Amino acid sequence: MAKTSSTGVRPTIRMVAELAGVSTATVSYVMSGRRGDGGPGVSDPTAEKVKAAAERLGYRPNQAARAIRTGRTNTVILSLTMLSDPWSLSVIEAVQRAAEPLGITPMILGDADWVKVLATHNADAVFVDAVREDQTAALRKLAGHGTTLVVFNETLEPEGFDVIRSIAEPGCRMAVEHLLHGHRRIACLTPATAAGTSGGSRYRAYSEALAAAGIDEREDYVGLFDGTTSGAFAATTKLLGLPDRPTAIYATTDFAAVSAINAAQRLGLAVGQDVDIIGVGNTVEGERMSPSLSTVGPVDFFDKLARLLLQRATGTGDAPTVLDFPWHLFVRESAPHRSAATRLN
Q1: pTM above 0.85, yes or no
Q2: Contacts of 30 (CB under 8 A, 6+ apart)
């Protein structure tokens, strides 16, 4: 609910202008967050005076009226499957950092049906991190009706929307092969829905890399969990409690790898010495934690994703395209370089 002044009157842009001693056009410009976009100059002291007056009066811009007037909402929607995942947190952080100077507000849609939400909510651009097969028709329909979409997907082509493509399987194979340089007892930590012969490419990379190295895959070395932090922690604890416990763990996401590190440390194991752990995703959290997480993933993925999304939100950039990211290996403290001569077996 909008604030009212001490006189009980809802503050207006004209009241802010009078208090700050500027024109209503200057107030509108400052409050829109568009400073620095090449428009009329407004000095920093003037902008601060306007903001102070708006704060004193409790003035907030009428977003609905602005959207009708300009055709823009100054918002972007981020549809993210799992908000607790370091990958999702890295997306949010990058977009917030890029959006703030533009006066654009990211709205987070977590674990919800983005098809239903976008049928009733508008935004200048929308990022969708997962598209099920039964949602592709709705995706094309939304794009056809003018919704600006940036979609993270390995197989879709840009049909009126941008596609962020990052093929995981070769990078995942690289992660397992890194562990194979120093280990033969390698476990896989993966969601239950992504294992088995019909499972996802990240699990398949593990299975095929072991076979190529002449190592039989052990059922008890596949740590299945329900996709939650606590589930990954429990699965790791079970793996590391085996009589001949694995000396290395390949986690199919950085999210799972972080939980694996926490579980190993709770058991008194030194990560990077007693057990090596590698993740998938190259997330900011993995790089910043201690020990820092060895991982595979693309370079500058999150900043480039944010840049593309904000270009679309502001109506700049080329026609819809595919933004493709090759993967790299990032060797850090949790799984250092090893040779066959120093195997932990």
Answers
A1: no
A2: 42, 46, 47, 50, 51
